[in-house]
Write a structure and sequence with these properties.
about 250 residues, TIM Barrel, alpha/beta, 10 helices
Length: about 250
């Protein structure tokens, strides 16, 4: 592919297909031309089996969406073993439990926890990140949770900026990238269209060429990861159309 950065697919985009046939779905994603996949949830396969599936398809596994409880207590060791077994470089907190995000202090406490986890993961060459939804841009005790989090996180913790979610939260992705430069290892390429939540990448209102150039320049982005949670067409077709559209945008950008 003629891209400046590798492109991955968040497997939540094809969650039904993954549940029914993970090896077959990975082969189909590879056939489309994706460079890698980002995992979520649990699978009825060992980490070593998943690694073998990826190697057979020629896919990488840059990221894995994890839950906060997976990173606490004895569960952390099990999570590290899983990530290392698959060959994952980035552990990304997908969403916080509701009881851990009610107050200003809750967000600060989570940041402190994440800082400690980040140090432990770094011992195994794994980076910790956080994936935003809309809630991070809804004020809590007068402040934005996104700033409470990243304002208190060590710079070793990266932000996996979900562009579509941020825009639906009335945030400006470009401003966020400039405010926290050098910390956007992975950008979630999710489209935004004010009148259509099912718009595919490149078929909405985001100026991807300019935004991804900023991600590269200011965010030091390593991976573009497409996520298409819902669409008017079948999920695998949507995933391929999103990839083709993004490739076209990147080719025009040069």
């Amino acid at each position: 592919m003629n891209t400046r950065k590798p492109i991955g697919l968040q497997l939540f985009s094809v969650r039904k297909e993954v549940q029914e046939d993970l090896p077959g779905t990975l082969k189909e994603v590879a056939r489309m031309g994706y460079d890698g996949v980002e995992f979520f949830g649990r699978y009825p396969h060992s980490p070593e089996e998943i690694r073998a599936m990826l190697q057979e398809c020629g896919l990488q596994a840059p990221g894995y969406h994890v839950l906060l409880p997976w990173l606490e207590g004895e569960a952390l060791g099990e999570t590290i073993d899983m990530l290392k077994g698959i060959g994952v470089r980035y552990a990304v907190i997908a969403v916080l439990p509701e009881e851990r995000r009610k107050t200003r202090q809750d967000w600060i406490d989570v940041a402190e926890l994440m800082n400690g986890v980040s140090k432990k993961l770094a011992e195994h060459s794994i980076k910790l990140g956080y994936h935003n939804h809309r809630m991070e841009f809804e004020r809590v005790d007068g402040e934005l949770p996104f700033d409470l989090l990243f304002g208190n996180l060590d710079e070793s913790v990266f932000m996996e900026l979900d562009v579509g979610h941020a825009l639906r939260g009335d945030a400006d992705p470009a401003s966020l990238i400039r405010k926290y430069p050098g910390r956007l290892d992975i950008v979630h390429v999710r489209e935004y269209a004010s009148e259509n939540e099912k718009a595919l990448v490149g078929e909405g209102e985001v100026d991807w060429a300019d935004l991804l150039s900023l991600c590269d320049r200011e965010g030091k982005t390593e991976w573009y990861v497409i996520e298409q949670s819902a669409s008017e067409c079948p999920p695998l077709e949507a995933a391929e159309r999103c990839l083709r559209n993004l490739e076209g945008i990147l080719e025009k950008r040069g």
